[in-house]
Automatic annotation (TrEMBL), chain A:
Gene3D superfamilies for the chain: 3.90.1010.10
Similarity annotation: Belongs to the SufE family.
InterPro entries: Fe-S_metab-assoc_dom
Protein name: Cysteine desulfuration protein SufE
TrEMBL record, chain B:
Keyword Transmembrane on entry: no
The protein's name: Cysteine desulfurase
CC cofactor: pyridoxal 5'-phosphate
InterPro entries documented for this protein: Aminotrans_V_dom (IPR000192), Aminotrans_V_PyrdxlP_BS (IPR020578), Cys_dSase_SufS (IPR010970), Cysteine_dSase (IPR016454), PyrdxlP-dep_Trfase (IPR015424), PyrdxlP-dep_Trfase_major (IPR015421), PyrdxlP-dep_Trfase_small (IPR015422)
Superkingdom to which the source organism belongs: Bacteria
Pfam families xrefs: Aminotran_5
EC number(s) from the headed UniProt entry: 2.8.1.7
Organism, as annotated: Cecembia rubra
Length: 143, 407
């Protein structure tokens, strides 16, 4: 499996092909969202909703050996695309890798300018929640 | 007469810029309108040459600032055809104007078991102040239901209106749907049972001719910034006889006649309701907004905006997956809609990518959204400086976006 850094570089490369056209970039993000695996209906509940997002985002984490697998969904297509990027980078990693990950691709592709401040705050809330899951599992694995 | 839109646009500096590499198309006018250069210049001129605190100043600058400040009050009186300037109170905005009535008229005249009547299409600012008052006074808030098209159900209004109703507080034009309510008839009916009427004119004053004497409303609340004027400034019109029996709003300077530690007597209206140093610069600049509207003429503004509304509706209704929200017969230039299978946030962001500014979400009308079973809508709202070629681009962009999920 490629490293977190390699995958982020891949994403940066993909976005650089899109150039400065904001509309095509958004369309691309939405297409990424379509590739998200189905989210289990039973988990679509209040306690799995991430606070701080304008649109609804459900996120759960599952243990796979020493690694964490994330499953997520949203009621908006653009947000689904953003989640799929985060999952691509962070899912299937160890809690330590996730906790320590420096997600440089977000600034590098200028995500703030593409999605605006409201959604950037939502994106930050998603990352925070993923890292909190990682921290919880790390603590569990160490005890 | 058709307006020279290019000439009007040239008066608005902000419109001449690119957003994401495309010319800005500003369709978020129901949130706030842009300001003509004359307003911006008046504001900076005030701070460059005339800045002084108003009333009671014994010097030339104070005298000049006071005169300009009071000139705006006179312009507002003329704008809504109030009987006298004393009936015009400056506030921070529509929200504060409504809160002022709740805190003064409401505190004094609403009692246990009394009823306040609002409609389903109210902005939160015309819901929450009354909820707070009702909770404090053990009064009851009643809500007039609306039809699927977004119009008040008249029979329900008549049923809800009783001897217990002390106040009807209702929006003139809905910010989320555009619906124009039949306020003249509402006022007349409410007065028959002895209720006072407050009209939320935030969305109507820039589009419709307002004549408070003809409407016979007791209060009218509106904001300067939706009228091509500065933000942070609003107006409460109240009939003299009602304002006079209302207690003051906030305590402080300006609102008093005489103060001793034992007793304070209050100033006359409107000053009784204007404690503290007001927003002088913005008040003075606001006169230029009213001059701008007067110069073009309300009826020409309305027919231009009606024309834009019809043109946009014709184009958008052709699009597969386009779902209009609010199709009342009488509307101001607001189009609320959704696209089948898409979230309004996503639609708004894709329009922004094309330089088109719209608003998405619940528009501070969550109970209204619940009525329609919606999380929110996309709202395009037009002003006097918008053009048909801009609407062509909106229609083209919405069509392209709708195609993603509606092939």
């Amino acid at each position: 499996m490629s490293s977190i850094t390699d995958i982020q570089n891949e994403i940066i490369e993909e976005f650089s092909i899109l150039g400065d056209d904001k509309e095509s970039t958004i369309f691309y993000i939405m297409e990424l969202g379509e590739q998200l695996p189905d989210f289990p209906e039973a988990e679509r509940k209040e306690e799995n909703i991430i606070k701080g997002c304008q649109s609804k985002v459900w996120l759960i984490a599952q243990e796979e050996g020493y690694n964490i697998r994330f499953l997520a969904d949203s009621n908006t297509d653009i947000t689904k695309g953003l989640i799929s990027l985060l999952i691509r980078v962070l899912s299937g990693r160890t809690p330590k890798e996730i906790w320590e990950a420096d997600l440089f691709f977000i600034d590098k592709i200028g995500m703030g300018n593409i999605i605006g401040s409201q959604r950037s705050n939502g994106l930050a809330a998603m990352i925070k929640q993923m890292k909190l899951y990682a921290l919880a599992y790390q603590t569990k694995q160490n005890t | 007469m058709s307006l020279n839109i290019e000439k009007i646009r040239s008066m608005f500096p902000v419109l001449h810029q690119e957003v994401h590499g495309r010319p800005l198309i500003y369709f978020d006018n129901a949130a706030t309108t842009q300001k003509p250069k004359s307003v911006i210049d008046a504001l900076s001129r005030y701070y460059e040459f005339d800045n002084a605190n108003i009333h009671r100043g014994a010097h030339a600058l104070a005298d000049r600032a006071t005169r300009y400040f009071e000139n705006t009050r006179e312009s507002i009186r003329d704008f809504i055809n109030a009987r006298e300037e004393a009936e015009i109170i400056f506030t921070k905005g529509t929200t504060e104007s409504i809160n002022l009535v709740a805190a003064t008229f409401g505190r004094k005249f609403i009692h246990k078991g009394d009823e306040i009547l609002i409609s389903t299409m109210e902005h939160h600012s015309n819901i929450v102040p009354w909820q707070m008052l009702c909770e404090e006074k053990e009064a009851i808030l009643k809500v007039i239901p609306i039809t699927e098209e977004g119009e008040i159900i008249w029979e329900s209004f008549l049923q809800l209106l009783t001897e217990k109703t002390k106040l009807v507080s209702i929006v003139h034009a809905s910010n989320a749907l555009g619906t124009i309510n039949p306020i003249k008839n509402i006022v007349a009916k409410a007065h028959e049972v002895g209720a006072k009427v407050l009209i939320d004119g935030a969305q109507s004053t820039s589009h419709l001719d307002i004549n408070v004497q003809e409407l016979d409303c007791d209060f009218l609340a509106f904001s300067a910034h939706k009228l091509y004027g500065p933000t942070g400034l609003g107006v409460l019109y109240g009939k003299r006889e009602v304002l006079e029996i209302m207690p003051p709003y906030q305590g402080g300077g300006e609102m008093i006649k005489e103060v001793s530690f034992e007793n304070t007597t209050f100033n006359e209206i409107p000053f009784k309701f204007e404690a503290g140093t007001p927003n002088i610069g913005d008040v003075i600049a606001f006169k230029k907004s009213l001059d701008f509207i007067k110069e073009i003429g309300k009826s020409d503004i309305k027919s231009h905006e009606d024309d834009l509304l019809q043109y946009a509706a014709n184009g958008l209704n052709e699009i597969k997956g386009f779902i209009p929200v609010g199709t009342a017969k009488e509307k101001v230039s607001v189009i609320s809609f959704n696209i089948q299978g898409m979230h309004p946030f996503d639609v708004g962001m894709m329009l922004d990518a094309k330089g088109i500014a719209v608003r998405t979400g619940h528009h501070c009308t969550q109970p209204l959204m619940q009525r329609f079973g919606l999380e929110g809508t996309v709202r395009a709202s037009f002003a006097v400086y918008n053009s048909k070629s801009e609407i062509d681009q909106l229609v083209e962009s919405v069509a392209r976006i709708a195609k993603i999920k509606n092939k």
